[in-house]
C-alpha cells in the first residue's frame, strides 16, 4: 500500500521536538477527565510538550499557557467544559482526552466557536464522517488516533489469522457496553467478523456501564453456544475482567478492554486479570518504543509519581500532537486563521524508528487519498496502515494479552509480537 506522502518542514518539527527555536504566545485548553487514567495521560503528555517548548522560547516569541476543564466523563459536563474554555478562557487551541460520547457532546460547540481542536483518545468513525460531509465547519478538528473502523478492520485480521485459523473458533457472542464507542465497535465487528474472518456472531449482549455483577451476562454468553466472547468495554472495564477470572468463565474472551491498556491493570483487578486480551492503538503496553518515545516516558515518570505511571497511547498522542499543532501555528502565523492552520496541520508528518524499523508515524490523511483496504477516505484522521509489512505507517492497532503471571505483551500482528496468544489455564480449547 502506498499512501500519499505530505511535505512537512523537517527543520520546523525537529526544532519543536528538540527545542531550538522561538515562536508566538498560545493559550491552550485541556478538556477531559481529571480523575481518569485516560484524561490524565492526555493532560500530562500536553504538559510535558508545553514545558519543553517553553524552555526553548515558546511559540512565536511568548510562552504557552495551559488551562484545564474537567468533563468527569459526563456528556453534559463536557459541553460546559468546552464552553468554559471557549468563552471564559478564550483559548487558542484545545487538546482533548475525552471519551467518545463526551466528544460527540461538545462537537457542535467546536463547530460554533471554530477553535482548532485535537482529539487524542476518541476514535469514533462517525466524527470522521462529519469531516467528510461538512469539511468547512469541521476544518478545526483533528483526531490523531486511528478511527475505530481502522481498529476493527485490523482486528478482523486477528480474528481470521489467530482466533479462526489457530484456535479453531467458529462463533462469537458480543458483550458490549451501552455507549457510542460500544455501539460503533459492535457494529463494525458484526458486519465484518463473519464475512471476512468466517466467524458467526451468535448473539449481541449489551450492558449498562454501571453493571457490577456480570455473572448473569456470562451465563447468557455461555448459553449462546458461541466459542468465545468478544467484549467491548471502555468504562469500569477492570470489573468485567476480574469477574471473568474469578468466575472462571469457560470461554476465551478477547475484544476491547480499556483498563487493560494501562500498567495499573494488574493491581486494579487484584491480580485477577490473566488471559484477557485487547486491541490497543499504538503504542501499547508491551510495545517496543523508539528512542524519542523512550525519552518522553522517562521525562513523564520523573515528573509524575501517581497513576498512570505509564502514559496510555493517548499520552503519546498528546505529546507529539501538541508539538505538531504548534508547528502548524508557526507556519500559519497563529491559530487566528482556522483555514490556514488546518491546512498546515494536515501537512504535519513525523516518522519514528527503532533499529531502522518504523515504530510510530504521526501524520494525517488528506481529503482525497483513498485507503485501499476499506475503500474510503479519512480526512483529519491519523495515518494508519492496514496491511503488512507496515511500510507507510504503524499498524492501526496491536493486540496485547495479559498472562496469569502478571506479564503482558503484544500477540498480534506477528511483525510486532513479543509473546504468543494463549488461553487461560481453566479454559479448554
Subunit arrangement of the protein: single chain
What's the CATH topology name of the largest domain?
A: Rossmann fold
Runs in which pLDDT lies below 50 for 5 or more consecutive residues are 1-24
Largest beta-sheet details: 5 strands, parallel
The CATH class of the largest domain is Alpha Beta
**How many alpha or pi helices?**
13
Q: What is the beta-strand fraction?
A: 15-25%
Radius of gyration: 21 Å
**Which overall shape is indicated by the principal axes computed on the Cα atoms?**
globular
Task: Spell the H/E element sequence.
Answer: HEHEHEHEHEHEHEHEHEHEHHHEEEE
The CATH architecture of the largest domain can be given as 3-Layer(aba) Sandwich
Describe the 3D structure.
By secondary structure, the chain is α/β, with parallel strands linked by helices. It folds into two domains: 10-146 and 288-363, Response regulator (Rossmann fold), CATH 3.40.50; 149-280 and 397-416, 3-Layer(aba) Sandwich (Rossmann fold), CATH 3.40.50.2300. It contains 13 helices and 14 strands. It has helices spanning 10-18, 37-55, 75-88, 100-113, 125-133, 148-164, 180-197, 215-223, 237-246, 265-268, 291-303, 313-332, 338-346; strands spanning 24-32, 60-70, 93-96, 117-119, 141-143, 171-177, 200-207, 228-233, 252-257, 277-280, 349-354, 357-363, 398-402, 408-412. The strands form four sheets. It has a five-stranded parallel beta sheet with strand order 2-1-3-4-5. A four-stranded parallel beta sheet has the order 7-6-8-9, sandwiched between helices. Helix 4 (100-113) links the parallel strand 3 (93-96) and strand 4 (117-119). The radius of gyration is 21 Å and the shape is globular.
Amino acid at each position: 500500500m502506498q499512501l500519499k506522502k505530505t511535505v512537512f518542514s523537517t527543520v520546523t518539527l525537529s526544532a519543536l521536538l528538540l527545542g531550538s527555536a522561538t515562536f508566538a504566545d498560545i493559550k491552550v485548553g485541556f478538556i477531559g477527565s481529571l480523575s481518569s487514567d485516560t484524561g490524565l495521560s492526555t493532560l500530562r503528555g500536553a504538559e510535558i510538550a508545553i514545558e519543553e517548548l517553553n524552555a526553548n522560547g515558546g511559540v512565536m516569541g511568548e510562552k504557552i499557557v495551559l488551562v484545564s476543564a474537567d468533563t468527569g466523563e459526563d456528556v453534559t459536563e463536557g459541553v460546559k467544559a468546552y464552553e468554559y474554555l471557549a468563552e471564559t478562557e478564550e483559548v487558542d487551541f484545545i487538546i482533548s482526552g475525552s471519551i467518545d460520547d463526551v466528544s460527540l457532546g461538545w462537537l457542535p460547540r467546536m463547530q460554533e466557536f471554530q477553535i482548532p481542536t485535537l482529539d487524542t483518545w476518541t476514535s469514533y468513525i462517525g466524527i470522521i464522517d462529519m469531516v467528510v460531509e461538512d469539511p468547512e465547519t469541521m476544518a478545526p478538528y483533528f483526531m490523531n488516533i486511528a478511527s475505530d473502523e481502522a481498529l476493527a478492520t485490523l482486528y478482523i485480521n486477528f480474528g481470521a489469522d489467530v482466533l479462526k485459523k489457530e484456535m479453531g473458533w467458529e462463533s462469537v457472542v458480543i458483550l458490549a457496553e451501552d455507549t457510542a464507542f460500544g455501539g460503533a465497535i459492535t457494529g463494525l465487528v458484526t458486519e465484518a467478523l463473519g464475512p471476512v474472518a468466517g466467524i458467526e456472531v451468535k448473539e449481541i449482549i449489551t450492558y449498562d456501564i454501571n453493571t457490577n455483577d456480570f455473572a448473569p451476562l456470562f451465563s447468557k454468553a455461555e448459553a449462546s453456544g458461541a466459542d468465545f466472547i468478544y467484549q467491548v468495554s471502555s468504562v469500569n472495564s477492570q470489573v468485567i475482567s476480574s469477574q471473568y477470572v474469578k468466575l472462571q468463565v469457560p470461554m476465551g474472551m478477547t475484544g476491547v478492554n480499556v483498563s487493560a491498556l494501562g500498567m495499573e491493570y494488574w493491581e486494579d483487578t487484584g491480580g485477577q486479570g490473566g488471559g484477557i486480551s485487547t486491541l490497543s492503538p499504538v503504542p501499547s503496553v508491551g510495545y517496543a518504543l523508539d528512542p524519542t518515545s523512550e525519552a518522553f516516558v522517562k521525562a513523564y515518570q520523573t515528573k509524575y509519581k501517581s497513576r498512570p505511571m505509564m502514559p496510555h497511547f493517548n499520552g503519546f498522542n498528546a505529546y507529539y500532537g501538541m508539538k505538531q499543532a504548534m508547528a502548524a501555528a508557526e507556519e500559519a502565523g497563529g491559530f487566528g486563521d482556522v483555514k490556514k492552520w488546518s491546512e498546515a496541520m494536515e501537512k504535519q508528518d513525523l516518522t519514528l524508528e527503532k533499529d531502522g524499523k518504523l515504530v510510530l508515524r504521526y501524520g494525517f490523511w488528506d481529503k482525497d487519498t483513498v485507503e485501499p483496504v476499506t475503500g474510503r477516505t479519512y480526512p483529519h484522521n491519523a495515518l494508519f496502515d492496514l496491511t503488512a509489512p507496515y511500510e507507510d505507517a504503524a499498524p492501526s492497532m496491536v493486540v496485547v494479552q495479559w498472562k496469569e503471571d502478571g506479564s503482558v505483551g503484544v500477540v498480534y500482528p506477528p511483525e510486532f509480537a513479543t509473546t504468543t496468544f494463549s488461553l487461560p489455564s481453566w479454559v479448554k480449547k
